[in-house]
Amino acid sequence: MDFIDYYKILGVSKSATQDEIKAAYRKLARKLHPDVNPNDKEAHKKFQQVNEANEVLGDPEKRKKYDKYGKDWKHSEEFEKAQQQRRSYGGGGGRSQFSGDFGDTDFSDFFTSMFGGGRRSSQGKFRGQDVNAELELKLSDVFTTHKQTFTINGKNVRLTIPAGVEDEQVLKLKGFGSPGANGGPAGDLFITFRIINDTKFKREGNDLYSTEDINLYTAVLGGETTIDTMSGKVKLKIKPETQNGTKTRLKGKGFPIYKNEEEFGDLYVTYNIKIPTNLTEKQKEMFRQLRDSS
Questions:
Q1: Ordered DSSP codes for 56-86
Q2: Which residues contact 19 (CB under 8 A, 6 or more apart)?
Q3: Which CATH number covers residue 159?
């Protein structure tokens, strides 16, 4: 297995901070995402490499192992355990007591020499590494349950995304991580959702917030106004003498509750009273008379 320079893939230096690594990953992931390059096999390959690089460098513990052991970082725990075991049998002298079979795990010659050519057996099944990935979704998309297909580790994963998922929520897919060694089980895939707000609503949990303009005459005399909600338009009655900044709650017009689509949060609407402009002299005089009479 050739050495893969994850720093080079992300375009960052070895001294890069975690924030710099995260920023570089997000930029490349957006550029190379299969949805943006549906028929570009090279972009798909680079997208997988970028995800793999982020999986390692985005995790401080994995990054330490990668910096220390290079391409063999995934097996660093087994190596360190073997070294401890050897020390317990006399400070590393004599034959290695480690009995794992590394014939199919593609260890480097460097690792083999450090293990001292330990005897082989049918033991040594290792679980595959977990994989971390990010999936960007629009707020309008996660208002309803939908299916989405994306590529990870060369596999097409068809995922049902429940309505109501939140930003930075993590979903675990068992067995969709890296394959195990020597017949060991595959790792798991952890998907972190990044929700991009493409609506005029502000989301807090399951509740939504919006600001709606109403004209001065409706605010003073009362009337009706039509507003948008995530599920369609609704008419609201405006009470006479409604003040600027007045809030009203629309029960059940908020966001669906995760994995319980029959229940919704609420929508809170704040009224913004628009002062009329470009008045004629006659209209201004009417306002003066109203002012003087009060």
A1: HHTSHHHHHHHHHHGGGGGGHHHHHHHHHHH
A2: none
A3: 2.60.260.20
Q: Do 223 and 249 reside in the same domain of the chain?
A: yes
What angle do helix axes 60-69 and 41-57 make, rounded to 10 degrees? Answer: 100
Same domain, residue pair 75 and 163: no
pLDDT over 90 (residue 42): no
CA dist 225 and 253 (Å) reads 16
Q: Which domain does 37 fall in, by range? A: 6-115
Contact 256, 163 (CB under 8 A): yes
| Mean per-residue pLDDT, 87-109 | 41
- Cβ burial 262-285 (10 Å sphere, 16+ → b, else e): eebbbbbbebebeeeeeeeeeeee
Residue 293 placed within a domain: no
123 inside domain: no
Task: Look at residues 174, 196, 218 and tell me which one is the last residue of a structural domain.
Answer: 196
In this structure, are 180 and 266 located in the same domain?
no
Is residue 99 within 8 A of residue 121, CB to CB? The reply is yes
**pLDDT of residue 132 exceeding 50:** yes
Q: Is residue 40 in a domain?
A: yes
* pLDDT of 112 above 70: no
Token representation of residue 119: 């005897």
Q: Enter the DSSP assignment of 223.
A: E
Q: Which residue has the tokens 């060991």?
A: 184
